[in-house]
Amino acid sequence: AREYRTDISGTWAQHPQSASQSFSHSFFVILLLITAQSSMRMMNRMVALLVAAVIAVTATHAEEELVAVVRLISFSSRNVTGNLKIVQTPLDGPVTITGKIFGLTEGSHGFHVHEKGDLSEGCKSAGAHFNPENNTHGAPEDTVRHVGDLGNIVANPEGEAIINITDNIISLRGSNSIVGRSIVVHSGEDDLGKGNHSLSLTTGNSGDRWACGVVGIE
């Protein structure tokens, strides 16, 4: 049975032991609340740090990737069109060109970067192959080649070519940057400098310029 006593004022009060237990319970509840608040603050800090880390990683990734685009326009009797995306990751890494080109004849077509981004007179004003080292024309895998030598693309019977080219020589920055220059699609196959034609070592004897477009940073 509980023990009671009368205090100085004559009122009844619980035994000190019961009051102590009540105090302990209250203290425990307060401690739980403080712990919960601390945990919530810690969780908020962790979420904030996680968000900051994601933003930092995203920003770093963006800084380590360059993206350019090309819209190919036809300046010939054939309606050759297409869109290309050019990505360089990391900044000193290889360049990948992807996209689709339509309106071609079935087979191989020379595909090059030309030195100028001037289309005022159609593809003719795009100039020669981009060739800052003044090399002879070659295949993409050759040691001696123009920077702009990207070989051939191949069109299916419907005249569509799916582009997926990776090259270690061209760049989207620096001395080999193709930004502001033109990509040209030719009427014929590039002989990669291995033919006996007088144009083999300059253009690969790849024929007329059917379509072209200026490389611009996205």
TrEMBL record:
Cofactor section: Cu cation; Zn(2+)
Enzyme class: oxidoreductase
Domain Superoxide dismutase copper/zinc binding: 80-215
Coiled-coil portions: none
Protein origin, superkingdom: Eukaryota
Reactions it catalyzes: 2 superoxide + 2 H(+) = H2O2 + O2
Gene Ontology molecular-function annotations: copper ion binding; superoxide dismutase activity
Protein name: superoxide dismutase
